[in-house]
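Render this sequence as a predicted structure.
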Amino acid sequence: MRTEPHTIDIDMTRTTHHGRSTSPTDTPSVGGALAVPLLLFGVLVAFSYPIAALSAVVAVVAGGALLRRGLAALVARSHDHVHEFSLPGGTIRFRIAPR
């Protein structure tokens, strides 16, 4: 008895109520749908509390700058230093190199 391989042909398009066909990548993402109301809420809060909003922006920018400097110092300090992890199957050795 010979059997043919099974194939499944799936059409990845759907028809909207306007008669147009769209692919799944044409639909808006969930992240985009959530980002718009959060952005509007953020703008309203910024207009309501301008000093607090400005302080938050300054804190985020300063935190990002400190994080970049701290990570750069960590990479510079551990440059050409071999790190080792001992595992039951052996040892992993690696180096951190700046770009």
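Summary. The chain has a mean pLDDT of 79. Residues 47-99 form one domain.
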